[in-house]
């Protein structure tokens, strides 16, 4: 359950093909594979050039890794996340911009 993670909201894009569907939306598009065993690929879309903070957090809300913290250009992005040093369990990606916060659950299997 995600109930133990405060101040994180899920925002889902319902129609990726609609004109303007990305306008002013913060969207974490995908984490693949999920569950992961040693690494995962994170893909996301930013509608505009803006400040972005992307963190890997544990179930207690502690930041384990900051994957990006700075200005990012608009468009689709992909980041590779090594999970070899993490124990099996549930983790969250937290993505924050000026427009909001979104998260995605990642399951690490060994």
Q: How much strand content do the residues show?
A: over 45%
Number of strands: 7
| Tertiary shape | globular
Major beta sheet summary: 4 strands, antiparallel
Please give the count of helices: 0
Following the backbone from N to C, one meets helices and strands in this order, namely EEEEEEE
What's the multimeric state? single chain
What are the key terms here?
single chain; 110 residues; mainly beta; four-stranded antiparallel sheet; 0% helix; globular
What does this protein look like?
The structure is a single chain. Mean pLDDT is 80; it is low at 1-24. Strands 4-3-6-7 form a 4-stranded antiparallel sheet, with no helix packed on it. The chain has a 3-stranded antiparallel sheet with strand order 1-2-5, with no helix packed on it. It is an all-beta fold and 110 residues long. The chain has no helices and 7 strands. The radius of gyration is 14 Å and the shape is globular. The chain has strands at residues 27-32, 39-46, 50-57, 63-72, 75-82, 89-97, 100-108.
Please give the structural blueprint.
Layout: E1 27-32, E2 39-46, E3 50-57, E4 63-72, E5 75-82, E6 89-97, E7 100-108
Antiparallel strand pairs: 1-2, 2-5, 3-4, 3-6, 6-7
Outline:
This protein is mainly β. The protein starts with 26 loop residues before the first strand and ends with a strand.
């Amino acid at each position: 359950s995600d109930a133990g993670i405060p101040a994180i909201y899920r925002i889902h894009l319902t129609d990726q093909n609609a004109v303007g569907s990305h306008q002013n939306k913060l969207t974490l598009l995908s984490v693949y594979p999920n569950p992961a065993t040693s690494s995962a690929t994170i893909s996301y879309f930013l509608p505009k050039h803006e400040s972005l903070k992307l963190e890997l957090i544990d179930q207690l809300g502690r930041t384990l890794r900051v994957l990006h913290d700075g200005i990012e250009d608009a468009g689709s992005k992909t980041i590779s996340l090594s999970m070899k040093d993490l124990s099996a369990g549930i983790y969250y990606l937290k993505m924050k911009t000026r427009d909001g916060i979104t998260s995605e659950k990642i399951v690490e299997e060994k």
